[in-house]
């Protein structure tokens, strides 16, 4: 990652599933809790960028399996991520930290467009930057965008917050009781074993560009702040 010395800068990926609190739409209590934890880390001196998913609204692949044209369904999915981004921005500001939303699809009344150098400037000034609308490209996922944004904005680490699991397991712990949690994992193994905790293109992009990833569970109170501050929770994934 090409950057000079600067305070710890990280990219946090939050899936839409989290924001929905288990159903379609938004659970403001969940978003507020995540926002408060992010604000705490910013006050402790960490520069925080966020990529939000949109699975609590629409997933393009699911709509397309039910008859919609895939690319159009994917645009709906991307628009869902923007709603999550606006909600997160709102609660981060209510928690006392300035926040900006930048979207990969231009919508000037709602948010800034994605401008990497401006995003870096915001981070340097202690503002949280929330990236919405994914990559602006159908057939991509917000996991892959999270790795791309982390690389382009010079983040030290990609932090992937998960619901229901506290890291990467040898198999899906909800289906296989013999699954074991891993403290460390290489990208090669993640890809070879088909571990789907993050999608394969996100693993590959991170591997090819030397970005480390930490997958952690958001179930425990304060875990988002801990991950942002650099505590070694969850599973480290690296080259
Ligand atoms: N999406 C897309 N391109 C992107 C990012 C997202 O087409 O660059 C669409 C895709 O349909 C996806 C939906 O937006 O299913 C929501 O994103 P994702 O599934 O990654 O959200 P998460 O699972 O993290 O909630």
TrEMBL record:
CDD domains xrefs: AAK_UMPK-PyrH-Ec (cd04254)
Kindly list the positions annotated as binding UMP.
54, 74, 135-142
Q: What is its EC number?
A: 2.7.4.22
Q: In which pathway does it act?
A: Pyrimidine metabolism; CTP biosynthesis via de novo pathway; UDP from UMP (UMPK route): step 1/1
Organism in which the protein naturally occurs: Actinomyces marmotae
Q: Where in the cell is it found?
A: Cytoplasm
What family does the Swiss-Prot or TrEMBL record give for this protein?
Answer: Belongs to the UMP kinase family.
Q: What is this protein called?
A: Uridylate kinase
**Boundaries of every Aspartate/glutamate/uridylate kinase domain copy:** 19-216
User: Which reactions appear under catalytic activity for this entry?
Assistant: UMP + ATP = UDP + ADP
| Key words, A-Z | ATP-binding, Cytoplasm, Kinase, Nucleotide-binding, Pyrimidine biosynthesis, Transferase
Biological process (GO) annotations held by this record are: 'de novo' CTP biosynthetic process; UDP biosynthetic process
Q: Which GO terms describe its cellular component?
A: cytoplasm
Superkingdom, taxonomy of origin: Bacteria
Query: Per its Swiss-Prot or TrEMBL record, what regulates the activity?
Result: Inhibited by UTP.
Gene behind this chain?
A: pyrH
Q: Which SUPFAM superfamilies match?
A: Carbamate kinase-like (SSF53633)
Q: How does it assemble?
A: Homohexamer.
- Indicate whether ATP-binding appears among the record's keywords: yes
State the protein's purpose. Catalyzes the reversible phosphorylation of UMP to UDP.
Q: Where, in this chain's numbering, is ATP bound?
A: 13-16, 55, 59, 163, 169, 172
| One Gene Ontology term of the molecular function aspect | ATP binding
Top EC class of this enzyme: transferase
């Amino acid at each position: 990652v090409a950057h000079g010395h600067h305070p710890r800068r990280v990219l946090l990926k939050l899936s839409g599933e989290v924001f929905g609190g288990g159903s379609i739409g938004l659970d403001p209590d969940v978003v507020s809790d995540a926002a408060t934890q992010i604000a705490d880390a910013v006050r402790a001196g960490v520069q925080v960028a966020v990529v939000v998913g949109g699975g609590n609204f629409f997933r393009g692949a699911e709509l397309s399996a039910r008859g919609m044209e895939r690319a159009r369904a994917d645009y709906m999915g991307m628009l869902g991520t923007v709603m999550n981004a606006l909600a997160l921005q709102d609660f981060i500001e209510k928690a006392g930290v300035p926040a900006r939303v930048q979207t990969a699809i231009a919508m000037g009344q709602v948010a800034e467009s994605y401008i990497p150098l401006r995003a870096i400037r915001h981070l340097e000034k202690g503002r949280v930057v929330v990236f919405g609308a994914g990559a602006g490209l159908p057939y991509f996922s917000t996991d892959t965008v999270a790795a791309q944004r982390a690389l382009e904005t010079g983040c030290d680490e990609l932090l992937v917050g998960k619901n229901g699991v506290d890291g990467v397991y040898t198999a899906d712990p909800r289906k296989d009781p013999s699954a074991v949690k891993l403290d460390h994992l290489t990208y090669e193994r993640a890809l070879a074993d088909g571990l789907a905790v993050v999608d394969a293109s996100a693993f590959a992009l991170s591997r090819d560009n030397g970005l480390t990833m930490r997958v952690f569970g958001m179930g425990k109170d304060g875990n988002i702040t801990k991950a942002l501050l650099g505590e070694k929770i969850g599973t480290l994934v690296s080259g």
